[in-house]
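ARCHIVE RECORD
Type: protein–small molecule complex
Small molecule: zinc ion
Source of inputs: curated submission
Record status: active
Notes field left blank by submitter.
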Amino acid sequence: MTTSFLHKTKLVLSTIQQAVLDGLFPICCLGCGKFDEWICANCHSTLPIITDQHCPVCKKHITSNGIVCPQCHKTTRKSFDGVFVASYYHDKLLKKAIHYYKYRFVEDLSEPLALLLAQSIQNSTLVTPDIIIPVPLHKRRYRWRGFNQASKLAKKLDLQISVITDILIRVRYTVPQVKMKNKNKRQENLNNAFIVKDASQIVGKNILLIDDVMTTGATLTECARVLKVAGAKTVHCLVLARE
Ligand SMILES: [Zn+2]
Ligand SMILES: [Zn+2]
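STRUCTURE (tokenized, with ligand):
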């Protein structure tokens, strides 16, 4: 069998597979049901964008770009500098879209969701980062989902800034944070979960750390801490919403 024959067979099979999938699970807007798009332009325009960013630690003080307020700074100076939150988790459409993206594995939602991220920071005064790092998944979790949702968002965001996915590595499989209620246990759960593989690419850099949703903040805190230990100058986080 020639390679080109195999290639053609694969193409035909994948076209059939796609047609079957489209028949079983037709793509329709999660907001209004319109065919062929996961979030149509009309529904996308209804997604709220947060204009007043708050200190991610105390959640009380309004701060520029969601930087940590001076009172909370003492506790987090070895971790992130701030968290910029694009939209509200309680928004029905956004919540549904995030659910489909993460748990129904609709990878294509990375596009409208990244667009929301882009729109949210469009008029912000966030420092232009030197590099973008998505929160990594453990390889076991990656195999389960088939893609890294944070990484997809970072790439679709298309800021013309390098997205680096092989420096910050998740080396330990952990129980999903969302399932853990106790704060100390959550932090403990992440001990030694991340490593920086090549610190030379991090030293002195302004980093934008991207994740889909901030739940307890423990994951972002730990990732940012590890990046700071490796020599990062600043670490600002960008998420779709805060749960
Ligand atoms: Zn719609
Ligand atoms: Zn604060």
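CURATOR ANNOTATION: Residues 56 and 206 are 19 Å apart (CA to CA).
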